[in-house]
Design a protein that fits this description.
Elements lengths: L8 H15 L2 H12 L5 H27 L7 H23 L12 H9 L15 H9 L1 H29 L5 H6 L1 H21 L4 H21 L5 H9 L4 H14 L4 H21 L11 E4 L6 H10 L7 E4 L6 H37 L10 H4 L17
Antiparallel strand pairs: 1-2
Helix pairs in contact: 3-4, 3-9, 3-12, 6-13, 7-12, 7-13, 7-15, 9-12, 10-11, 10-12, 10-15
Length: about 400
């Protein structure tokens, strides 16, 4: 809300940076809380439900932005936006402080018996619940684990397109010929489509067991197709380009699943926190890098003025402007940002490569563990899962741990 009081770039940039720092803890915190309350099988749906807020926020933000843009007050419309949205976020923050429990162990709204039940149901996770002690060896193991770098790359690659679309999406839509306010409204279907694809993806994933990597790849197909279409569909086909833009939304569904893969496949509380943090470092770097692929000199289409016009016109032009024969004129067609769209295409393709690599590594490790324990006395059936369920062992330490693929 303080940003509405800014009257120069320095103060606005400072407050924006502080706001970003405060927001940075939200998704990692939600992921850790989800992992402490739900089984690994339940986590994708729960994450999908709260992640749909991204889509609903885009849709609701479009309606709210249209309403705020219609205010005829003493302040610029952007200041009203900070005041209204800031007040709503502050109010919801107070609700969360009061209502959201830290973990099942300390949940004040549950009876002691209900707390024990909430913890007991997590036994099958083999990931523990929460441990307040920082364990140095788990930090070291996290950075020695290839999964950490693969998830970092997923966070980076998935958010290079996000950084560009979130900043330049409205400009691309406005280039289709819509006014500023109508452009804001056109974000509503985009946000709803994102929410629907997230819900479809997580519910299908729940229906087909242990197929998360496969569904990540499936969810990437519309994004790749949409990005290719956005790059190669002629600017005259506005409806086709608008549909192509909307098809870039389902990457959010893929993000939900690979985020759930990260928390489900990392055991040991310290290791989980470190791995989570590194993934979101990639997330932030991707969002920072994304806009730099949308070059200013590609924001409009230019065409060379014709030099084969009539001699009288040419003479007249040359007398008024000596350089007119080699000048460029602004084409009213919408911006295409070819480098930005190519960054989206390449990032999504590389994301598919990374998730397939992760899938192979996790499946191979599961087979290795099955073989080792299968050769022991009693085989897989003789495993003592209770002994390791809440021991805060890492996924590498705990041979009873199986990775979700």
């Amino acid at each position: 809300m303080l940003q509405a009081a800014c009257n120069n770039f320095k103060t606005l940039a400072t407050l924006r940076a502080l706001g970003g720092a405060a927001e940075a803890c939200s998704d990692p915190s939600f992921m850790l809380i989800t992992s402490m309350w739900y089984t690994r099988q339940q986590q994708p749906i729960r994450m999908g439900l709260w992640y749909t807020a991204n889509g609903l926020g885009i849709a609701g933000g479009g309606l709210l932005g249209y309403a705020i843009g219609s205010i005829k007050g003493a302040l610029p419309s952007w200041k009203y936006e900070f005041l209204v949205i800031g007040a709503l976020c502050s109010a919801w923050g107070i609700v969360m402080i009061i209502m959201l429990p830290d973990s099942p162990v300390t949940a004040k709204l549950l009876t002691p018996r209900e707390r024990r039940m909430a913890i007991e149901r997590l036994r099958e996770n083999q990931t523990g619940v929460e441990n307040k002690h920082l364990k140095g060896y788990q930090v070291k193991e996290a950075f020695m684990d290839s999964k950490l770098y693969l998830f970092f790359m997923l966070g980076l690659l998935s958010n290079i397109p996000n950084g560009g679309i979130s900043n330049f999406g409205t400009i691309i839509i406005q280039g289709f010929g819509f006014s500023t306010l109508v452009t804001t409204l056109m974000q509503v279907p985009y946000g709803i489509f994102i929410s629907i694809t997230i819900l479809i993806c997580v519910f299908l994933n729940d229906r087909f067991k242990n197929r998360r990597c496969l569904f990540v790849v499936i969810c990437m197909i519309p994004n790749i197709c949409g990005a290719f279409s956005l790059r190669f569909t002629p600017v005259e086909y506005k409806v086709g380009r608008l549909i192509s833009y909307y098809l870039t939304g389902p990457y959010n569904a893929a993000a939900v699943l690979f985020l759930s893969l990260q928390i489900a496949n990392t055991a040991g509380h310290t290791k989980k926190v470190v791995s989570n943090a590194v993934l979101f470092v990639g997330y932030c770097i991707g969002n920072i890098a994304g806009p730099f692929f949308y070059k200013t000199d590609q924001s409009y289409v230019f065409s060379s003025s014709s030099s084969s016009s009539s001699s009288s016109s040419s003479s007249s032009s040359s007398s008024s402007s000596p350089s007119s024969s080699s000048s460029s004129t602004l084409d009213p067609r919408p911006p295409t940002y070819p480098l930005g769209i190519w960054s989206m295409i390449i990032s999504h393709i590389l994301e598919v490569v990374v998730i397939l690599t992760l899938w192979y590594l996790l499946a191979t490790e599961n087979k290795r563990r099955d073989k080792i324990q299968g050769e022991q006395e009693g085989g897989l059936e003789a495993r003592d899962l209770d002994a390791t369920a809440f021991s805060d062992m890492t996924d590498r330490e705990n041979l009873n741990f199986r990775y979700i693929t």
